[in-house]
Specification:
73% helix; mainly alpha; 0% strand; 192 residues
């Protein structure tokens, strides 16, 4: 794909993000994206075949960006506690982001899919839990953390994060609410 094509595809993704943020997933049509991008239907179909494909591309792009930020921020001197704190800070940013937040579209998409066993949310949850479990195990090995059940603790942390994501979309969530929960998580692991 040439540079101009890459730029056009990115423009479509950036514009579609705004449409998904505004309308969710289930109410977005390819026509909506064509109109928002001010391109022809054929021009859109050169890059994407469905709203599902566009949403999945956006989510992959978001995951890649988060991974890049997370990976770039970690140094060899960082402890397991430092890395877990960084992970939780990234989650906090996502929880508090009001603009360009795709959470409602993601939940709508997940509810619409029939295959719950292999859902995108399930895969994200499991990947996050695995990262946290490895960090907890590393922290136990270095003497930073105490935890009898790293896998259970990792799943619990992911359930707390997922619950806060839902709260952020339904009831609203404040920075102090997020901080309180994240502090509780860390206090439950760190050896004093």
């Amino acid at each position: 794909m040439g540079e101009k094509s890459v730029q056009k595809k990115q423009f479509i993704l950036d514009t579609a993000r705004k449409v998904f943020v505004e309308k969710g997933y289930k109410n977005v049509t390819m026509k909506d994206i064509v109109e928002a991008c001010e391109i022809s239907r054929g021009g859109l179909y050169l890059y994407f075949n469905s709203t599902e494909e566009i949403l999945l591309a956006l989510l992959q792009q978001e995951a890649d960006e988060t991974d890049d930020v997370f990976t770039r921020s970690i140094t060899e001197e960082d402890s397991a506690a430092d890395i877990l704190t960084l992970f939780l800070k990234e989650q906090k940013k996502e929880l508090l982001r009001k603009k360009n937040n795709l959470m409602m579209a993601v939940y709508e998409y997940s509810f619409a899919k029939k295959d719950k066993k292999n859902s995108m949310l399930k895969k994200q949850f499991e990947a996050g839990a695995k990262v946290i479990e490895k960090l907890i195990e590393s922290g136990i090995a270095s003497g930073e953390f105490y935890c009898e059940n790293p896998k259970g603790a990792a799943n619990n942390i992911m359930y707390v994060l997922e619950g806060m994501k839902i709260n952020s979309q339904t009831m609203g969530i404040t920075e102090s609410m997020v901080d309180e929960q994240l502090l509780y998580i860390m206090e439950g692991l760190i050896i004093e």
